[in-house]
Amino acid sequence: MLRIVLSALVLCFGASQVWAADRQPKEHVVQIVSDYDNLRMYFKPKLIIVQPGDTVTWVNQAAEDHNIFSYPDGFPKGDKPLHSPYLKKKNEKWTHTFQKKGTYEYHCIPHLPMGMHGTVIVGRHSTANEFHEPSVTEMKAYQARLREFYDDEEFKYTPRNKRKAGKATTHKKHAHK
Asked: What span, in angstroms and rounded, lies between the C-alpha atoms of 72 and 105?
């Protein structure tokens, strides 16, 4: 019986290896939505699951300034954060090809207090110890980017472990330049 189970596992594993080798990278689209009627800004879909080698293109659906920006502790160790330019025109796009497995948490800097954030999972979700641990210099640079839109009193950064615990980012108002 054990021999039959092991043979079945070997066949399944071998088949999955052949499938993985033959798999062509896919292209995925995330819409950047400015819903003025309901006073919402969001990414659609908010969560996307892709495989290594796949490409994700974010498409701005309105003439509103948006960007795709990683939390400083929201991407896998050994990879680079997502940092798009500001997309200002309707249908303007930014594309990124994901190579490393793991979780990428991102947001739009000007609309973060409105809850504009999203997640890309590449292959599998990252475990807690697989996320990038930002240096003091990286945190200062991130905070400087936030200060382009917010005063220190208006926005406080929430670390990943507290974001995941369901604690909301604190802010007093949305200061859009």
From this structure: 9
CB 78 within 8 Å of CB 122: no
Q: How far apart are CA 135 and CA 17, in angstroms?
A: 38
Say if pTM beats, i.e. exceeds, 0.70: yes
Strand residue runs (E) in 38-177: 40-44, 47-50, 55-60, 69-70, 93-97, 102-107, 117-122, 155-156, 170-171
Please give the C-alpha separations between residue 136 and each of 39, 129, 141, in angstroms, as whole numbers. Answer: 35, 18, 9
Cα separation, 157 vs 144, whole angstroms: 12
- pLDDT per residue, tens digit, the chain (177 aa), is 445 443 444 444 444 444 556 789 999 999 999 999 999 999 999 999 999 999 999 999 999 999 999 999 999 999 999 999 999 999 999 999 999 999 999 999 999 988 899 999 999 999 999 999 999 999 999 989 998 888 877 777 788 888 765 444 333 333 333
Write the CB contacts of 148 (distance below 8 Å, at least 6 apart in sequence).
109, 177
- Asked if residue 40 lies in contact with residue 114, where contact means CB atoms within 8 angstroms, the answer is yes
* Superfamily, domain 23-132: Cupredoxins -  blue copper proteins (2.60.40.420)
* Structure tokens given for 147: 């200060």
